[in-house]
Each structure stands twice: as structure tokens, then as C-alpha cells.
Amino acid sequence: MKKVSAFFLVIISMFVLASCSMLGGGNAFGEYKLVEASAGGVTLKEGTEMWEASFGEETPTITLMEGGKFKMSAEGDETEGTYTSQGGGKLTLTAEGQSIDATVEGGTLTLSMEQSGMEMSMKFVKK
Hints:
Blueprint: H1 2-22, E1 30-39, E2 42-45, H2 49-55, E3 61-65, E4 69-74, E5 77-87, E6 90-95, E7 98-105, E8 108-115, E9 118-126
Antiparallel strand pairs: 1-2, 1-3, 1-9, 3-4, 4-5, 5-6, 6-7, 7-8, 8-9
């Protein structure tokens, strides 16, 4: 009986470690706040006048939750969606029929996209 219990404990531990490594190692679940946004060669950084004019006092956030779900809050609106792991810290976030690629590494979540030929990215750091 002890061997069977130990076997299941090992299997459960492997699944937990695998899910963490798919999200870039460590515990990637949690809330991330936007600290930098770039589009068309222009970069906005938290703490600058341009940042305050663009985002005001409520900084956008993304929360990664267990079970492949996330929520994004910005300007008083909240959107929920799902994410799938591509392995190696790469994710695809999907909400309202739109998908975006992301990476999670060392407490940083980076979203990257191209729209109308323009490269855009947003960097979030874990709170």
C-alpha cells in the first residue's frame, strides 16, 4: 500500500512541476501590472508624464489563474479569457475571439502582437 501511495505522490508531483515549467518556471500564477508599452517605435514607461496621460492612475493588470484562465483589467473594464501553454514559458491568451502570444519569464509577462503591420508589445511585472 505504501508503494502505491508513494507512486501516486510522485505522479502528482510530476504534474505540478510540469505545469510550472510550462509557464516559465516557478509559480507564474498571480497578478501582473503593466509597466511598459511599445508600438510603432514609441515606448511608454510607467512613471512618465506620457504614461499618466495614457493610463491615468489605474494601471492595467493581467491575472493568470490556475485552470488556464486569465482576467485583464483596464480603465475600469474587466475581460476574462483562457490561455494555453505552448511550453517553455510561451502562452497564447484568447478573449472575445482574439488571440495574442505571450511569454512568462522571471516574474515578467510580455504580450507581443502585430496589427496593421505595426509591432506592439506590452510588458507586465508580477505584483
